[in-house]
Amino acid sequence: MKRLQISINVALSFFCLGTLLFLIQLILHDYSSFMVIGFFYLITAIVVNLMVLLALIVALIVDDQKIKTLQSMGVSLSNIPIAALYAFIILKIV
């Protein structure tokens, strides 16, 4: 159960931080320096979320809480289209 809550917290944290970076990028219009920060954030988010997703896949196989594990995986995977949308918007502005 604790693993499932951690995965949800990680997903929500990366969503909030990503949204904050996206809004700052839109407000400041300083594309060159802030886009580098966003790129490193994106790489970090991908690595961490993939590790969490791998742990959830293992939990899905060995634990009995399959529904809660699938829900946690859904929350984690929901960040992908949101990040893609943010990247599309930022790249269209540049």
Low-confidence stretches: none
Distance between the termini: 43 Å
Our estimate of the beta-strand percent is: under 5%
* Share of helical residues: over 70%
Provide mean pLDDT, rounded: 86
- Separate helix tally: 4
Compute the gyration radius: what is it? 15 Å
Count of folded domains? 1
The dominant shape is: elongated
Q: How many E strands? A: 0
Descriptive labels:
single chain, 94 residues, mainly alpha, 4 helices, 91% helix, elongated, membrane, transmembrane, LIVCS family branched-chain amino acid:cation transporter, transmembrane helix
Overview of this structure, please?
This is LIVCS family branched-chain amino acid:cation transporter. Keywords: Membrane, Transmembrane, Transmembrane helix. The protein is an all-alpha fold and 94 residues long. The protein has one domain. Helices cover 91% and strands 0% of the residues. It is built from 4 helices and no strands.
